[in-house]
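User: Could you write out the 3D structure of this protein bound to protoporphyrin IX containing FE? I've included everything you need below.
Assistant: Certainly. Input first, then the structure.
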Amino acid sequence: VRVFRAPRTPSIPLPPGPKPVPILGNILDLTPKELWLRATSWSKHYGELVYLHVFGQPLIFINSPAALSALLDGRGALYADKPHLTMVNDLCGCENMVAFTGYGPQSKRQRRLMNMAFSTTRIPAYHPLIERETHLFLKRLISIPKDAEGNQLTPEQAQVNHIPLIRRYAGQLTLSVIYGYQAEEHNDPFLNLAEECVDILSNKIASGGGIWPVDIIPVLRHLPEWMPGAGFLKKAREWKAKMNEFVDEPYQWVKECMKNNTHQPSFCSTLLEDQEFNPAAAAAAAVASSGSSRPRAYSKVSSSSVIKVTPDISQFEFDLKWTANSMYSASGDTTITTLQHFLMAMLLHPEVLEKAQAEIDSVVGSDRLPTFSDRPNLKYCEAVMSEVWRWGVVVPLNLPHRLTEDDIYTPAPCPANPNPVPVLLPKGSIVFGNIWSVMRSEELFDRPDEFRPERYLLSPEETALLSTPASTSDDETTKTARENLLKQRKIRDPRTWVFGFGRRQCPGRNLVEDSIWLVLVCLMASMNITRPLSENGESELKGFWPSTVASSSSSSSEKSERPLPAYMANGARLGAGEDLYALTSSSSNTFKGQGKVSPLGTVEGIRFDNSVFRQPTTFRVDIRPRSEAALGLVLGEGDD
Ligand code: HEM
């Protein structure tokens, strides 16, 4: 494939794509649900690049690894902008959220903050927080599930209780990492506010793909709010007020704690204390070093280092609080979805869980939970995690980018275009990186629909090749073999794709690489994750939770097809994490039952309704400690 760049030339054709209708364009070809499936089927016919338009707005789907790398990574500056949407950006006030900020000085400042706080070298500083939250999550999983009034949940409700617990884990972890905030067990004001705002963002503002009529006809924003059909203006006003509250309140809380010296280290406190980033911190240091009580110019803070800082304190604070808030908003649904994909995979493939547990037992033993230092030795677990990223595909169409200049690319041949010529990608196009099509590519992955961690394991020859360091004495064949192997591994590593591309690539990836790893291995180390015995009938579910045991232990466990282990039957869990978590009323409404599992690796009855995240509808899972020893480990952790 050859890639060109040239000024706009009308004679250059557009990429192929489904035929549009007059004026409306391809609006009828689009669907708010699982658009990635449709985009992937277009790609089979039209090839690497597919072009559509809606009311004249060009949409381009990039479907192949080669084109994604060449365009979104290789020409990052051209593809780093974001579409400006009137509803989300202007009316709901999200224009300063990182994922919606156009490419320019503001987005560069925001990324600098995130890159500094979440660089690979900084991530180990968050390990203690990650460990604490992971252990608390395990504890909550085995606590007696109750509703907000303190009533015991029914077995069916209990089997979907992992959803609010995962949500809580994700929310709490992010609040501690970003703001150093430790949420209350019940009814925490920040956690509630955050939940409400994330719900507004992903289920209300972004419903139907995030495109509102006012985005297509911007003049609608000037309608009076009382006019029929203008209800969206009132909603936007209310949502904006809530979002502003969410941006300001946790940030002011950090500043207050810093003033009182009661803060915990976090993304915000680290940057507020950093003289290179925060003009106020630099000024304070300058005052201290000069002995003067009046701040001097910010530029020189010590005799040995000259630091360039912007003198605009309000600008820095504005960037920081919006960036902090963006990190929170971006981490919730992605983390929850990843863990749901993992649970689905475990339900479908008990043999994978067994193998992972055997590896953990042999490397870690059974008298402690895994820690980050075990990671290099847990190769199969690592492969499970890679396969969760690939098979699940959290954000299948990436977040849309906007092309700021005309561009030209020659796609590879395909059925509709056997002799491709260079095509024009017009300036202003909204560009979707089709991550789903790469993760389901038969060229890259054998039987891509199947969940098979083994695909990442090295053969003994490959291990030998990679374990010997490259040396000048290597012959050409060895050098080439090593280079090819590394190249192949990179292209087949889902992490190369699932976090997006170029200058907008996910800034949270180093953090989740570690937090998701720990939560997966700790879950596998300590829990059995299985499908509830009954999919329809009530009776087989009896005895699932120890409370039913507490009241009628012997009879219910006798009736159960899967008898409770002794430690549950004697009520040992009752004291475990009782009351640690109360189910929120909304989550109990989300139960929709679990469908049948088909051999092809999908779970019938589960839908993926969200237009951005591949988040499954709720399904039931039976999660319980593997053994008495595992129970003891979980109870013993997280008490600090
Ligand atoms: C759990 C798994 C996660 C996945 C699979 C994921 C994936 C992605 C993807 C695909 C994008 C779009 C990149 C692009 O436009 O090319 C993105 C953007 C983003 N992610 Fe993540 N993400 C995850 C977790 C997180 C976490 C934990 C955080 C924060 C702590 C975070 C913060 C962000 C932000 C702020 C953006 C917007 C970046 C920009 O537009 O410049 N993500 N993520």
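The chain has 24 helices and eleven strands.
User: Perfect, thank you.
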